[in-house]
């Protein structure tokens, strides 16, 4: 079985800030940090905010993160290898089972788990009065905590989207309700879109990491190739433009990625499940595919800092989300071939049935 630490290269042999404390300076720290939680709680947006780049696909649709990715966050005092995981939900298809297994695999060998949960929409009484005392974490969020707790890692609760919180003094009762279901090692309220709470989170993460040298070079931002990021950015554009129409039945593969002297040349295929979906992606007179291509190209250029030529084709790959062999063909390791979940029996079936991830 491989885990995130096995996949990391051996130490780069030093740290940007120096790992020695012999001179009285604080020792360098390094380690692995999993970002876990229900679909759509803001894991990818937070990872991008911490790293200052669009590395993880973040969209308004739940379950856009399909595979684990390592984001490498290096500061003069520490290196935190961030493991972005798919949202934890009750899986129905082979793809969804694969995604939940990816989430748990991503968290099993880290130094600290950041358990992300959105600030709640607090119910109001007939007179419009907020019923904050009656709120408690939903069954789906509780199940996610129950799934992760047996891994025995310190868990920090990160309350996301705090810009959407009605009143600041609701925070305390919200935190108390969460602490009642699990003894979190810390609680940090953040707003990734406003950049709030990130410094407090940085301190929490740094404090949780053991002393040790960096795993990756200090200018490396992710463990994935540009080829992989390119396919993710095309998928992000596709989801953002057409998400409501074909959210879970599209995938992107790269047929060719050539780094030429002046520019990158990328040929990619968008896979859908049905001919009708192919029509949606292409759009009337090719308008939709053209807009997707322009948007995706801009995202890729933003990340690489180089010019890019992007050629997209659309192909019908019937029932790919349901067939483990086809998943593998499209780059998602088949669920059957993946290691078994190391969680207590019976936990998964108790997860809330939440179609494709909405709500708690
Ligand atoms: N208002 C507000 N919205 C946010 C914040 N962070 C994320 N969002 C929005 O929440 C939605 C989901 O964000 P993602 O980062 O894709 O969430 P995720 O947990 O990675 O989602 P999955 O990969 O689908 O599990 C997007 O529409 C984001 O723009 C925040 O701090 N404030």
UniProtKB/TrEMBL annotation:
Region listing for G5, in residue ranges: 190-192
Chain segments carrying region G2: 63-67
Biased composition annotated in UniProt, kind: Low complexity: 9-22
Keyword Calcium applies: no
Segments forming domain Era-type G: 29-211
Keywords: Cell membrane, Cytoplasm, GTP-binding, Membrane, Nucleotide-binding, Ribosome biogenesis, RNA-binding, rRNA-binding
Segments of this protein annotated with the region G1: 37-44
Region of interest (G4), ranges: 160-163
Annotated KH type-2 domain residues: 242-318
Keyword Nucleus in record: no
Location of region: Disordered: 1-24, 341-360
GO MF annotation terms: GTP binding; GTPase activity; ribosomal small subunit binding; small ribosomal subunit rRNA binding
One annotated Gene Ontology cellular component of this protein: cytosol
InterPro entries the UniProt entry points to: G_ERA_dom, GTP-bd, GTPase_Era-like, KH_dom-like_a/b, KH_dom_type_2, KH_sf_prok-type, P-loop_NTPase, Small_GTP-bd
Membrane topology: Peripheral membrane protein
Cellular compartments annotated: Cytoplasm; Cell membrane
Function summary: An essential GTPase that binds both GDP and GTP, with rapid nucleotide exchange. Plays a role in 16S rRNA processing and 30S ribosomal subunit biogenesis and possibly also in cell cycle regulation and energy metabolism.
Subunit structure as annotated in this protein's UniProt entry: Monomer.
Record family assignment: Belongs to the TRAFAC class TrmE-Era-EngA-EngB-Septin-like GTPase superfamily. Era GTPase family.
Protein name: GTPase Era
